[in-house]
Write a structure and sequence with these properties.
alpha/beta, Helicase, Ruva Protein, domain 3, Dna Topoisomerase Vi A Subunit, Chain: A, domain 2, elongated, binds zinc ion
Length: 199
Amino acid sequence: MSAGLGPIDQIAAELARLPSIGRKTAQRLAYHIVSMPVERVQALSDALIEGRRAVRFCDRCGNYTTGELCTICANDERDRSQLCVVRDPRDVAAMERVHDYRGLYHVLHGVLSPMDGVGPADIRIRELLQRLQDDTVREVIIATNPDIEGEATAAYLARLIKPMNVRVTRIAHGVPVGSDLEYADEVTLSKAMEGRREL
Ligand SMILES: [Zn+2]
C-alpha cells in the first residue's frame, strides 16, 4: 500500500483505474465495499480473480474463451465459409445479439492507427491471412467501426485479401459514423450486415 493512503482511498484508487469509473464514483463504491459483509466482498474478489484467470483468447478467432476454442468456433453448425472481422471481443458479443449471422469471426484486437503507433504487425492480421489459406472461407466481412482507423484497416485488409480469391465485403454504414459497433442497436447492426458492399 502506498504511504499515506488509507484503506478506503486505496480501494477507490484501484476502482478508479477501471473505464467509466470517475473519482467520485470510485469513492462511493469504496465506502460501499467497506460497509458490506466480508463474505460478499470475498465473493466479489473471488469472482474477479477466478474470472480473470479462467478467461483467455480463442486459439482460432481471438474471442474470449475458457477452453482452447470459443463456443462459436467449436460450434459445427456455424457457416465456415464466412468470416466476420471485428476489432475486439465486445464486437463479437454485439454481432451475436443480432442472431442472423451464422458465420465465424476473427478478432483483430485493435485497428491500424499510425498516430498511436499501431501497425499491421501489432494486430492479428497475420493470423487472419493464415486462416484464409485452406480455401474454406469464401467471404470476409469487415466489420470494424466506421471511423478513420476502422476504414483504413478495412481498406488495408481488402488489398491483402482480394488477391487470395476471397470475396471481401464491408458492413453498410447503418452503424452511425464515428460510433462504436458495440453500441449499435440490433436492428441497425442487422441492416448494416444486410446492406454490406464489395470492397
Ligand atoms: Zn473462436
